[in-house]
Structure formats: structure tokens, C-alpha cells
Amino acid sequence: MASLRHLTSRTRYLKLSNLDLVRSLRNTSSGTIVAKLTNRSSYLNITTPVVIPSNGCLHTLAVNSYSCPSYSSLCKYSGTQGWFSCARSYSSSKSSCNDSEKADQLTAEVTDTYVDEMKDELRQMAENQKRIKEQVECEIPRETDFVVIGGGSFGMSVAYWLKKRHPDGFSLTVVERDPMHSQSCSTLGLASLSQQFSVPETIKMSLFSAEFYRSMRDHLGVLDLDPPDINFNHQGYLLLAADKKGEDILHRNHKTQIDLGAKVELMSPNMLKAKFPWLKTEDLLLGSYGLANEGWFDPWLYLSALKIKCMSLGVKFTKGEVIGFDSEDKVCGSSTTAGAIQRRKELMAVKVKADNGKTYPMKFAVCVNCAGPWSGAVAAMAGIGTEETGPLSIPLPVEPRKRFVFVFHCPDGPGINMPMLIDPTGTFVRREGLGGHYICGASPKGEDKAATDLDVDYEFFEKEVWPVLADRVPVFNNLKLKSAWAGFYDYNYFDQNLVIGNHPYFRNFMMATGCSGHGVQQSPAIGQALAEYIIDNEYQTIDLSRFSFDRFLTDSPICEEGPYII
Amino acid sequence: MYRFVRYLVQQNSVLNWPETASIEPRITICLMHNNTATWWNPEREQFLGCDLAIAHFIIARGGAVRFCDIDHWFECEEYGKVPNTVPNIYHDGYKLEAIDASNTNIMYCSFDNIEPVPTLKYLNLSNCKYIDDWCLDRLSSYRQSVEFLDLSGCPRITERGLATLHKMSKLKRLRIENMPKVCDTPLIGLMLEESLPGCIVDGVDYDTNLNEGVDQQPEAAESFENYEKKLLSAIQSEMTGRYFPTSNIRF
């Protein structure tokens, strides 16, 4: 029996029986669920329904309109008794007054604010779900508010943080030329997280990212799907110093890291020998070991979790390659000022080449360049660095540099306490899994130039990596190389650090790139910082204004100081 | 949408409305914001000193503590309240020795309240449904003193988390029984014993793997009454936010 009762306050209560509800729910053609109340001739329009088989669990329905159109409320159906409580109703109609006489008992009162929030969020959640279901690689839109060039870890992170703020407020398109990420530095890299840097902002970004990965279920979880998991392996980094200079650097960095809250411990050679007996410590002066919030994870799982979350928030993913920009000459400066009228180029649209070979222009308000190793090339398409003098003379100094990763097996190698070991020469090695496999690599000491292919040079392993490893960890004399791959770094040849923010001339051309190998680990922080910069015009959480493009104009590099070269 | 509403059941069950009314109701996917198990209260520590502050925190959330030289456990009698036997002003002589947080809602942020006291030897985190690999990473703060660690039955811990326990150099005994998400428990048990010389790893059944391939009795189908009981207790525990444990072991 359904009944409605008025109260002097703004709440109304509606009682429906369990059986009534379940029997009467059906889909209408417009997509809403309609419940027919058995003793009433009018209907409840129910939107965003959530129905569970009735075994005493909570049912929650959002009721949109009831007999009188001005009625807007949220009904909560609870327990086995079949009580509905509707709150926040508006003016009554005559028919409702009559009902109050037949009214039944009350259920618990639901506060207005809670109900409002719940209603909004329910609606939001249902829309998000719908978006995932209908989201397929979309056609290239002609217009979009934000366009993100590059769908790797940076691009999707920026898209996530932007859309998280206002899921329906603006349109955001991510243009990625290779959805399989076969050359992306996010997936080919090792995705390791560490707080052991010297630049304070980088340490803060790593700490923030650790927190992000820890609470990833909350950030990137989507209703009704499995919570995302990135298979995080928690093992610290161990940085070694073999000379006085390296030792001083480690001491200085340790102080900065501890001040900012990182958990890092300095270890003397004796402590190192006691903890890691397989390590050669005779030539070492100091070691710096990360105790918590460090390790490595699976970048593929991270990217898929990001992508699903972005899709649920309404980000459009487009497959296409950016081949140019359209710009317009805008007049600025008033005509009454003495002197010439200033003309200024402004980027209006990006030219995207689709699979079918045709090129389509996509108009945007703000363009975010997250193309990783190729962001320098994308910036050049916009005109940055193409002129001899003037504001467009300095290019974006990011180019792809090739780095190798080798996988080997060593039967008697170090066990589970093996950290991510970084030798003073810059060679790194870590354990992979529990079966005696290890991953290693190094930066080239000699010539290092921009690369275009991903062929592996096995001689590099024989000549530069293996000898160093065998010297540092004598057990590694006996190893078998299993496989190798190459990947690109988005190498910033100016100072190997992040470039973030807008270009000084093209104010709507944002960029986030240039991390030169430690980008993926910090992508959550970078995405959030750039989203704040775009929406709020200033960095709120971590101040990254030092890393702007302007430092290239003023020639002030921010170099990472470590006892190694990576 | 099914999971979403189950979540609502956990968080905002109308049956328990008066109890949860003080918690700010926000529907997010994050359980932490609604869970009082996490809130860090600095005043508590100022008033009580480290050891007693931790004791109050743990006991109020359904755990138990033991102090050095005091033989019995101080247990939780009523959820949310600390019994009178535990002093509520700083007292000398109460040094925390053991924490039993089994079957509680303790999670990563709860450890903000648990300062690493040098006398803490025993830490029981069994059957805690929110303890995951990140919490184990955080346990490295207690590596100077903890000698016994029990992680049995925690559903979110994987072998990657167990691999971080090599930092607990003082560990003498580790219990890792019945951990559903850990693959290769015998392997990780052996590797932990190898890297922690003084430690014995309990709860690992090394023999099961040996018996694979031999004729095994098929598992008897669970009777319907047992299944129903489990379902009811699961619904009940979700409704009230408390864990109804099936076993409770304390040494």
C-alpha cells in the first residue's frame, strides 16, 4: 500500500511494499525506470535506479517527479518492512493533501543535505558508468575545450585531474597516435618510484605520487569494476657513493629528503656489508637506502586504470597523429598607442591525421603537450624554436634518447632483500620476481644522441654493464642474459628535468614533459600540478613554477645532483 | 550498481543511523573518510604520552594491548570506549609491549597514531581486511623492536608486501597462515627465513605442494546451513561495520 504524508518540515514519507516495488519496476522507452504504485493511479518516475534482489538489503532509488511536477525528492527504501522516506519535497498539490489522511507511520528522517548530495552523486555515478559503456575511440571532434597531445602517463594523468574537477564543465580530448603504446616511454620504462633526489620539488612530487598509488582504489576506482591494482613491489633504492664528492652529495640530499618527510637511511660500509652480504663494499664510502614508499610497479596496469577512469569521467580518446597547428594573427595593443599595431600569433587548432589518411583540424582553447620524447617535435610544429630571433627562437629541448634494459638470470643471486641498486657509475640493477631474474641497465658514457629506432645493442651489455655488475656484486659473474628491450627517454638536453607550464608566447600551449626517465613515477603529481595551473592559474599543492619554460630563456638550469649519472 | 549499494549498506546503514550520524556522510569510493579508525588526534598523545595514547587508540577500535610487566591484556569491552582499567592521564610505568589489532578496521592512516615505541615486541594484525602491502611497507618504522608479527588471514596482502618484511631485522616469528592473495606462500616463507636469520615463519604448509598429483579427496560441498550462516554474518558485519571473527588467537 502506498501512501504519502505531509509534514510541516520539508520531508515527506512514502511507504511502498517490497513486493510492489519489485513487481512494478520496468524500463520505459526514455530510459527511466517507472514504478507503479498499486493503489495509486499515478506513477513515480525513477531515475538512476539501483535495485537489489530483496533480501533485506538497502534499496536506493532516486525519484524525479511524482504526480506534481514540482516534486523532487530522493526516496530511500530500507529494510524488509518496505518504508520509503522522501526528503526535500517542494510545494504540495491537492491530491497530496488528501493522501496525508491515509498516511502511515514514519521511517527515520533523512537530512536534506545528505539526501541532496546522495542524489547528485548517484546521478553522476550512473552517467559515468554510461560513458564508459559508450566510449569507443571517437571520431576526431572538430572542437574541444582542451586537447591533450599524447595519451601516455602524463597525458592521461593531466586529463584525469582536469576532468576530475569538472567532469561536465568542459570537453577534453586526448589525441594518441598509438593506443598500443608500442614506443611510449611510459610502458617501455621501468616505472620505479623513489624519493632520493636532490631537487626538493621532485622529492615532494614523489611523495605525493606514493600517496596516490597507495590510495589508487579511491582515486582511480570506478563503480562496479574491480578496484585497480598496479602490482607495486616495495623495495627501496640503494644509492652508493665511492668518492668524497659523492659522499657529500648523499649527505646533502639526505638532509633535504628527511626534511620533506621521505624515509631514507644513510648506511656506512659496515652496515651495508651486514645487511647485504652479497655486495662488494670495500671501495664504498656511503650508501643511501630508501625505507618506505619506494619500489616499482607495472606501468601497463597503471595506464589501463587511468584510461578507464578517464573514460568514466568523460574524456574522449582519439586515435590520430598531430601533424601541425593552425594559428591566427591576432591584433593586440590599442590603435591609439603611438607606434605600430602589434600582431601576435595565437594557436587555434591542431591538425590531426586520422587512420584514413585525411587530416582534420580540431579547434581548442588550451593545448597540452604531453607527447613525451616527441614533445620537442610537436612544439616545433607549433612554431616554437623555428625562428631565428624573437620569442619563438628557443626550442623545447626534449628529444628521444634510447636506453636499453637487459633481463638476466642468476641462480645464486641476491634474495628478496635486494634493493634497486645504483652503482656510483650509474649502472642499476634490481630483482624481478622471486625466481632469480634481474633487470639492469645503464646510461651510455660516451656519445648519446637522439634516436629513432628501438634496436638493442647487446655489445653495450657485454662491455659496459656486465663488468660493472660483476665487480659490484661478485655473484653476477655467473649470469645468463635472457632478453632485452630498448625504450626512449623524453630526454631534456638542457637540464634533464621537468618542463611544465605554458609557453611564454603561446599562452594556451601548455606542456608537461622532459623528465628524462623519472617521469612515470611522478605523473600523478605532475598531472595535478598542471591541472591546477590551467584552472586556478597557480600551483596549489606543489609549486613547480621553477620548472617553467622561462628557465630556458634565462638560461638557469635546474640540475639533479646525485652520486651517479642517469 | 550492485557494489555501490553494498557499499552504502556498509557506510550508511539506516539501521545504525544514530551511531553513524556523527560521521560526515559523503559518498565516495573511499572508505577511509568515513572510518573513525583513522583519525589522528594529536591531543590524545599530548595528554597521555606515547604508549597510553596508542593503547587508547587500539582498545577503542576493538583491539587489545599489553604493557611490559603487566600480565594481562587490556581488551575492548565496548566498541568505542576504553575501559577504566587503562589510565586516562599519563602514568609512568606503562610501556607498551604488545598490540593485538586482529579483526579490527585498522588501515594505513591508523599507523599515524601508532608511534614506533622501542618496547613494542608483538604486533598482531591478523584478519584485518584493510591491511595491504603499503601497510607492510610502513611497518618498516617498527623494525627496531618488533619480534612477533601475525598477518594471517589479511585478504589484501600479496607476496610483494611480504617481501618487504626483510627490513624487520629483529623479527623472530612471523605467521602467514591462510592468506588468499599470496601466491607461492612456501617460496616467500623460505626466502624470508633466508634473509631474516633469526626468524621462523609459521603457518606455511610446505607439504601441500608435495602432495599435488596424488589422489586427493575432493572437498565436501559446503552444506547449505553453513553457507547461510556465513552469508548472514557477512551481511551483519557489513551493516554494523564490525568484524565477526571466526577465530581469535592470542599468545
Automatic annotation (TrEMBL), chain A:
GO terms for molecular function: oxidoreductase activity. SUPFAM superfamilies: FAD/NAD(P)-binding domain. Keywords: Oxidoreductase. One of its GO terms (biological process) is mitochondrial respiratory chain complex I assembly. Pfam families: DAO. GO terms for cellular component: mitochondrion. Residues 145-532 form the FAD dependent oxidoreductase domain. The keyword Flavoprotein does not apply. The keyword Oxidoreductase applies. InterPro entries: FAD-dep_OxRdtase, FAD/NAD-bd_sf. Required for the assembly of the mitochondrial membrane respiratory chain NADH dehydrogenase (Complex I). Involved in mid-late stages of complex I assembly. This is FAD-dependent oxidoreductase domain-containing protein 1.
Automatic annotation (TrEMBL), chain B:
Belongs to the ATP synthase subunit s family. This is ATP synthase subunit s-like protein. It comes from Paralvinella palmiformis. It comes from the Eukaryota. Gene3D superfamilies: Ribonuclease Inhibitor.
